[in-house]
Specification:
The complex is a heterodimer of chains A (about 450) and B (about 325).
Chain A lengths: L1 H15 L1 H16 L13 E7 L7 H15 L3 E7 L3 H13 L6 E5 L3 H6 L3 E2 L8 H7 L4 H4 L12 E13 H6 L11 H14 L4 E4 L6 H11 L17 H15 L14 H6 L3 E7 L3 H7 L4 E4 L9 E11 L4 H14 L2 H11 L6 H5 L1 H9 L3 H7 L3 E2 L7 H16 L5 H16 L4
Parallel strand pairs in A: 1-2, 1-3, 6-7, 9-10
Antiparallel strand pairs in A: 3-9, 4-9, 5-7, 5-8, 5-9
Helix pairs in contact in A: 1-2, 3-15, 10-11, 19-20
Chain B lengths: L1 H4 L20 H12 L3 H31 L12 H7 L2 H33 L5 H13 L2 H12 L5 H8 L11 H29 L3 H10 L3 H12 L1 H17 L2 H6 L11 H9 L5 H27 L6
Helix pairs in contact in B: 3-15, 4-15, 5-6, 5-9, 5-12, 6-9, 9-12, 12-15, 14-15
The chains are: A alpha/beta (about 450), B mainly alpha (about 325).
Chain lengths: ~450, ~325
């Protein structure tokens, strides 16, 4: 399968982007002479590469990226990197694919980890395994948390993406409201029963309007995966070509989510906005919210009250999906640029750099070594909440990622929203979405 | 000089003798422009049009043709041509819903914002105190970037701390999840659109009112006509050309301006606020179906053209042009 993928890629590369293909061929000729396609690059005649990256969380992060890149260029004077901040994830995908069809693909881009199968399908990216030269390279590919690699590797073990800004979903809770309601402020809900109890208690016993809030706009499938994971099931196959939204556990998961507003009245009715949910929490309108660890830095700096961060509760088991962005290397970039991008990505995910990025953003550093660095140790000593996401990692599952990603998301998101707004029952919504999605994915099985 | 020694090359402009050419050094001028005079007029004219043509062709005509061409591509490998994308549209419930939403959206927002715009224009056209300030205040929404307006309204509609719910609660009305409930989300977005468009259209009506001659006012006063009758019989008919223009712009805008959906609802819940152009964006970029998006674009443009033709036909009979 990967052999045919590669052959097809060559063909498409030549016809679609003559410029890129020519460069590729030239680079390939050079590459035959030695093992390292970068051998010809020197500080005087450096390889130029472009890196597109999105920023999806708050803060002056462009400076941080520039600093990290400068560090890389100091160590590798033969490589010149142009980092291009390109908006949010969708904007970045648009810009990268536009540059690609114009025949000037960036060597590397940070895109959502869930884009993997779509990018493979369109022959846009190369597996990192193809660019490995040394044993050290190989070891680096295995240095990441397996839970993050679940969205980086296909079912045949090829590595298509490298975790960079990864996250999970955690609970944030208002300790002051908990105290006011006579609850233990050091204890967040640990089971679904407790979630209902505590949410009811805090809604009735404190000034908050709602006990709990799980945002359901934009990408409700992601929040929904917390419930399915806690029911002990996965919703998607490792090959990204089949979904299991018809499992009884999945239907029960959605019934529980809906019951929070419909039956228990502790969750705002209908669809809750993703973007304003942290604000709801900061305004003390909600006792508990479930949202990404990527919001940690912002909530920490803006909260005027004592808050706690806790791992997801458990029903059958605790758990959450992972989320966030991976590095990809583009197939149409010349081989020397691909290898230069490989070096760049390896540098950026080294423990020191990964720790710095994690501290500045709130994303979860993707390797265990990063958590051992001095900077990280100091940071978590001062702010132990940052460790919650890492400790929860062992209970995380791969984020829903399939071929035909956009259409699949539309189908499942619409189904979830129609159930959460009470238009159809959870069972009806999920069974129908499951059938449509699996029809759509049939050609990939 | 070679040119002047060759009588055949003398163009019509050469009839002007250098001596009577006003200003400048006639000889330098003649030698500089002389080669141009040998270019036939028709070629010269085309050369002048060329820059505009290139831009028009490159940015309008060619994209239009490629869009139609792309919309006819059959999915799958190979270059077969066919109506598959259009057939898919007919069976696509999301497309149908976005089209339905858009028609409702346009049918409500355009007449309402035109009516409010006309009312505001008539009110601030009179001699009243703080007229300049009032005009500016009414026009401000039109100057705000759509995204900024959307962000403001997102906060207004927010179910917990949003201004609207805070007010609603203080007067005893139960809170609503305005943007989260499929039954209220589209009307909520319509309010934003009307709020934004009315100020913009007011400007056109103000300009239209300037063209109505003050004698008509005086005549009405002399005749003792009521203010309402004057508006109905004089002002309103004379503003018809403006109404036609603004209604066409308004309809086009109601299909074109979807920026606020990105900020406020992302088309949700369950497509209840999905408008046609937003749906096209979703298909073209996040879903990477450029051919299908091209087909929907063709439909969108056809709808806009059809609506414009209908509007012009309908109004034309009733318009009083001077």
């Amino acid at each position: 399968m990967s052999q045919t993928v590669r052959t097809r890629r060559r063909v498409i590369g030549r016809s679609a982007a003559a410029l890129g293909a020519t460069a590729l061929l030239l680079a390939a000729c050079n590459g035959d002479a030695g093992d390292d396609p970068l051998a010809d690059a020197t500080a005087d005649d450096p390889i130029e590469i472009t890196m597109y990256y999105p920023i999806a969380v708050g803060g002056p992060l462009e400076d941080v990226v520039d600093g990290l890149i400068a560090g890389f260029e100091d160590e590798n004077p033969q490589i010149n990197v142009t980092p291009v901040y390109s908006g949010n994830y969708d904007d970045t995908a648009v810009q990268a694919t536009t540059a690609l069809s114009a025949g000037e693909p960036p060597a590397t881009t940070v895109l959502l980890s869930t884009e993997m199968f779509a990018l493979i399908d369109e022959d846009i990216i190369v597996p990192f395994d193809d660019l490995v030269i040394t044993d050290e390279d190989e070891a680096w590919l295995d240095s990441f948390y397996d839970e993050f690699m679940a969205n980086s590797r296909d079912d045949e073990g090829n590595t298509w993406g490298i975790p960079f800004q990864r996250s999970t979903i955690v609970q944030y809770y208002n300790k002051e409201a908990f105290e006011q309601a006579g609850l233990d402020p050091e204890r967040a809900p640990e089971t679904w029963e407790e979630l209902v109890e505590i949410a009811t208690a805090v809604q009735e016993g404190s000034d908050v309007s709602w006990g709990v809030q799980m945002p359901s706009s934009g990408f409700p499938y992601w929040l929904f995966q917390t419930f399915t994971t806690q029911m002990g099931v996965e919703v998607v196959s490792a090959a990204g070509n089949e979904v299991y939204f018809d499992k009884p556990e999945v239907i029960e998961a959605l019934e529980f989510w809906y019951s929070l507003s419909d039956e228990h009245g502790v969750h705002p009715p209908h669809v809750v906005d993703w973007g304003t949910t942290p604000e709801d929490f900061l305004q003390q309108e909600v006792g508990i919210i479930w949202t990404t660890t990527g919001n940690l830095s912002r909530i920490r700096s803006d909260a005027t009250f004592d808050f706690g961060v806790a791992p997801m509760p458990s029903n059958v088991q605790p758990g959450s999906p992972t989320g966030g962005g991976n590095f990809y290397i583009f197939a149409d970039a010349p081989e020397a640029e691909q290898r230069a991008a490989f070096e760049l990505i390896r540098y950026l995910t080294q423990p020191e750099q990964a720790a710095e990025w994690s501290i500045e953003t709130g994303y979860v550093a993707p390797t265990p070594e990063a958590w051992e660095t001095e900077a990280m140790q100091e940071y978590v000593a001062d702010f132990p909440e940052a460790e919650v996401a890492r400790d929860q990692l062992e209970n995380t599952v791969r984020e829903l990622s399939t071929y035909q990603r956009g259409s699949v998301y539309d189908l499942i998101n619409d189904a979830l929203q129609s159930a959460l707004t009470g238009e159809v029952t959870p069972e009806e919504a999920l069974l129908q979405a499951n059938e449509s999605i699996n029809d759509l994915l049939a050609p990939y099985r | 000089m070679a040119t002047s020694s060759d009588p055949a090359a003398v163009g019509p402009a050469e009839a002007v003798t250098p001596e009577v050419t006003p200003g400048g050094d006639p000889w330098a001028r003649r030698s500089f422009l002389a080669p141009l005079r040998r270019v036939p007029n028709s070629v010269f004219a085309w050369a002048l049009i060329l820059p505009a043509m290139v831009i028009l062709l490159g940015f309008s005509v060619v994209p239009m043709i490629t869009t139609v061409w792309a919309s006819l591509q059959e999915p799958g490998i190979g270059d077969s041509i066919g109506p598959a994308n259009y057939e898919r549209m007919i069976n696509d419930p999301v497309f149908r819903q976005s089209l339905r939403n858009n028609l409702v959206f346009s049918l409500v927002t355009v007449p309402v914002s035109l009516a409010i715009a006309m009312l505001m224009a008539v009110l601030v056209d009179r001699e009243i105190r703080a007229r300049g300030f009032l005009r500016m205040a009414l026009f401000t929404p039109a100057m705000l970037p759509v995204i900024a307006a959307a962000a403001i309204f997102l906060a207004f509609y927010q179910p917990n701390f949003g201004l609207i719910n805070v007010i609603a609660q203080s007067i005893g009305v139960p809170r609503q999840n305005w943007l989260g409930d499929p039954s209220t989300v589209l009307p909520s977005l319509m309010v934003v659109m009307i709020w934004k468009e009315a100020g913009f259209f007011m400007l056109f009506y103000l300009a239209g009112l300037q063209t109505i001659s003050p004698e008509l006012n005086e005549a009405s006063t002399l005749e003792g006509t009521g203010r309402w009758t004057h508006f109905r019989r004089v002002t309103f008919p004379l503003l018809m050309p403006t109404t036609l223009f603004t209604s066409i712009v308004g309809v086009a805008n109601s299909f074109k301006q979807v920026d606020f959906i990105f900020v406020m609802t992302q088309g949700g819940p369950n497509n209840a606020s999905n408008l046609l152009l937003y749906n096209i964006y979703l298909q073209a970029f996040p879903n990477r179906n450029p051919d299908y998006a091209a087909a929907m674009t063709v439909v969108l443009v056809s709808i806009l053209v059809a609506l414009a033709v209908i509007q012009i036909r309908m109004f034309d009979r009733r318009i009083h042009y001077r």
